[in-house]
Specification:
The chain is mainly alpha-helical and about 190 residues long. Helix content is about 50%, strand content about 5%.
C-alpha cells in the first residue's frame, strides 16, 4: 500500500530526517503543520523526535493518528461480536490471528453495499456531482469500499471501536483503496 497523492514527501523523508538531526537535539520537538499523509511525521517519530502534526484534511488526521499515536497493536475488545459475525470460519490459519488481523479479515468479509463510492466512482453509478458515470473503481470494489466504510462508521457509533481504532481502520481503507483503482494517478 502506498500514498498516491500529489505532494507526498515519502521520497524526501531520509534527506529531511538527516537534515533535521543536524539542526535539532535528540528528542527535539517538531511541528508538522501540513502533515498530509504524515509520512514525514512518522519518520521523525521513529527517529526519536517529539512530533505534533496538523492538517485541515480529515484523511490526514487519520494518517497522523496511525503514525504518531499507536504504541501497541489495537485490541478491538468491544468489537468482538462484529468480528465473530463476519470473520470467515472456512479458513484455517497456521498461526492464530491477533485482534487487528481478525478485524481486517472481518471487514474484508462484509457483504458489498451500494453507497457513495459505488454511486460516484464506478461505471454502474449515477453520480450526483458529475454528468456521466465515472470509471475509477470497478463496481464490485466500489461496493466493497462502501460496505467497509458503513461498518467502520457503525462500529464507531456503537462505541465498539476507540477513536484511535477508528482512525486506523479508515487509514487502512484509504491505503487499500489506493491500490485498486482502474486509473493511475492520485
Amino acid at each position: 500500500m502506498g500514498h498516491r497523492y500529489i505532494g507526498a514527501k515519502t521520497r524526501l523523508v531520509p534527506e529531511l530526517v538527516n537534515h533535521l538531526r543536524r539542526l535539532l537535539p535528540s528528542g527535539g520537538h517538531i511541528a508538522d503543520l501540513m502533515c498530509g499523509t504524515a509520512a514525514v511525521s512518522g519518520a521523525l517519530r521513529r527517529n526519536g523526535f517529539a512530533v505534533i502534526a496538523n492538517d485541515i484534511m480529515t484523511y490526514s488526521a487519520h494518517h497522523a493518528t496511525v503514525e504518531l499515536l499507536f504504541t501497541e497493536s489495537p485490541k478491538f475488545e468491544d468489537a468482538a461480536d462484529f468480528i465473530e459475525t463476519y470473520l470467515p470460519k472456512d479458513r484455517e490459519e497456521l498461526l492464530p490471528l491477533n485482534p487487528y488481523e481478525r478485524m481486517i479479515r472481518a471487514l474484508n468479509a462484509v457483504p458489498p453495499k451500494r453507497g457513495y463510492f459505488w454511486q460516484e466512482f464506478s461505471p454502474d453509478g449515477r453520480p450526483k456531482s458529475a454528468t456521466k458515470s465515472r470509471n475509477y473503481f470497478i463496481p464490485d470494489n466500489a461496493a466493497k469500499i462502501d460496505a467497509i466504510r458503513f461498518w467502520i462508521k457503525r462500529l464507531k457509533q456503537k462505541h465498539a471501536i476507540t477513536v484511535k481504532e477508528h482512525s486506523l481502520l479508515l487509514h487502512d481503507l484509504i491505503m487499500g483503496a489506493n491500490d485498486i483503482p482502474k486509473l493511475s494517478g492520485t
